[in-house]
Amino acid sequence: MTRKVTTTTTAEQRREQAAALQASIAEKVDTLRDTDQWRAFLDLTRGFHRYSLNNLILIWSQYPAATRVAGFRQWQARGRQVRKGEKAIRIFGYATKKITDDTDAPEDLTEADETGQRRRVYFPILSVFDIAQTDPVDPDAADGAALTQTLTGADDLGVFAAVSDYLTADGWTVEHETLPTGLRGYTHYESRRVVIAADLEPAQAAKTALHEAAHALLHGDLEPGEYQQHRGTYETEAESVAYVVAGLLGLDTGAYTIGYVAGWADADTDLIRSTAANVLRAAHTIADAITTGPVDVDAAA
Predict the structure, then answer these.
(1) Rounded to whole angstroms, what are the CA distances from 190 to 145, 223, 229, 238?
(2) For a pLDDT cut of 90, what percent of the chain falls above it?
């Protein structure tokens, strides 16, 4: 039998509540921008390199939870130290060398600098690490990485079970696995698998399941590379859906969601508001599927 969350609200009442919850995300992110925590986050992220699409795909394929990556020395310069034993993420760099003999390099691997000098182009393999693989050198200093607080406590309503049954009925497999540091879950679209980290507390696992269900519903038909190019928008959508549905069920995920959305959306409240239609559509679909409760009078007539 499919497990569901019992509620005392009708679908129409949930729609009104959902609209208010979605609108509150932008308001709370706007408030976050005035805090020391956000200023520390900006200090940390200022100057991060923008990677090519190919490198974004490489980063994501090796470390799906990656949010901000830099080299070993770059992290030290930012006051963080890569933990011993962490596995590097391999990407392609870019370098050039002056050509003294035109036969040294194929034409498609050369370029001219501002003086017209031909240069050989190289793409050396570089090692980078995600912020989740590092720790602050000074634990007492303001840490912009700590925008989110992992949820603790029970899942008394059975949200995780209800979401799992909803996904399973739609042809997805839901599994628990030991995942890399910082990765709480992921959705693999080709194999239709949703994976949740095995070490999460029940409340966080429930929230993460809602997040991944939103990805499955909203982003399952993306073209290759599209997710990496627009990841900020898609992560904002998925986490907003989780926040709205959890809120409808009485689970407040704000301690985690607001910082998460702020980080992925760069605290752009216009972007957050622009996702409202997708967020509410997915939130209503998931909430209606995983809950059971009173029937709307008009709908029953």
Answers:
(1) 31, 11, 18, 18
(2) 57
Whether residue 19 contacts residue 261, with contact meaning beta carbons closer than 8 Å, is answered with no
The letter for the amino acid at 182 is G
* Own/partner long-range contacts of 195-201 (Cβ < 8 Å, ≥24 apart): 196/160, 200/150, 201/150, 201/151, 201/152, 201/153
Residue (of 220, 283, 249, 253) closest to 161 by Cα position:
249
Q: What is the pLDDT of residue 297?
A: 46
Confidence of residue 214 (pLDDT cuts 50, 70, 90): very high
Q: How far apart are CA 38 and CA 144, in angstroms?
A: 7
Q: Is the pLDDT of residue 56 over 50?
A: yes
Q: Hey, what are 227's tokens?
A: 């997710």
Exposure of 255 in the CB half-sphere (CA atoms within 13 A): 8
Q: What are 155's two structure tokens?
A: 């899942």
Give bridge partners of residue 129 from the DSSP assignment. Answer: 70
Give all strands (DSSP E) within 104-220, no chain letters: 110-112, 118-122, 125-130, 134-136, 173-177, 185-188, 193-197
Retrieve residue 101's tokens. Answer: 């003999």
The full set of domain ranges for the chain reads 5-43+147-300
